[in-house]
Amino acid sequence: MFDPERDVVARRSPFLLRLAIVALVTAAIGMAIWPSATGFRVGAEGERSCVAVIDGWHAYRAGPSQADIARMATTSRTVAQTNDAAACIPPSRHRLIVSGIGLLAVAFVASVALLMAHARKPRQQLAR
After folding, report:
1. SS3 label, residue 63
2. 53-90 pLDDT per residue, tens
3. Mean of all residue pLDDT scores within the chain
4. Which residue has the higher pLDDT, 37 or 78?
5. Contact at 8 Å (CB) between 51 and 39?
6. Counting Cβ atoms within 10 Å, is residue 50 exposed (0-12), middle (13-18) or buried (19+)?
7. Does the pLDDT of residue 29 top 80, yes or no?
8. Which of 33, 53, 21, 51 lies closest to 105, judged by CA?
9. For the chain, what is the total number of helices (H) and then of strands (E)?
10. According to the model, what pLDDT value does residue 28 have?
11. Domain-by-domain residue ranges, the chain?
12. pLDDT tens digits, one per residue of 38-55
């Protein structure tokens, strides 16, 4: 029986659905990069401010040389004060790794969702 009214399927607006998906993915990416983009404090009393995106790329400094030790003996500076930039490196790298894992998780979930949406589409039969 031919009934065109039954062929029409009520659907939500694809524009609003796509807009919601873009907003969701953007929020997920923002949460993933949050640890790397925000500042944090290190040190015994939190005297050094660090940002992982800036400080995580520095190379480790070598320990103090004999000249540095001799210079510190004559001043009141400690080894930690001489090498305070290195205090940011390990926590910054940790935050960068956490952000990388979060971004990989977002990419994985998005790709699985795209594959599932593509697999759900009906395939058109070729006319013979």
Report:
1. coil
2. 988 887 766 666 777 677 767 766 555 554 566 788 88
3. 80
4. 37
5. yes
6. buried
7. yes
8. 33
9. 6, 2
10. 96
11. 32-59+85-120
12. 999 887 777 788 999 988
Q: Would you state the pLDDT for residue 45? A: 77
CB atoms closer than 10 angstroms to residue 121: 7
Report yes or no: 33 and 99 within 8 Å, Cβ to Cβ: yes
C-beta atoms surrounding 34 within 10 Å: 13
CA separation for the pair 40, 93 (Å, rounded):
13
Tokens 């790298």 -> residue: 93
Q: What is the dihedral of CA 64, 69, 72, 77, to 10 degrees?
A: 30
Kindly list the distances between the CA atom of residue 60 and the CA atoms of 37, 53, 65, 77, in Å, as whole numbers in the listed order.
21, 16, 14, 20
Single-letter residue type at 38 = T
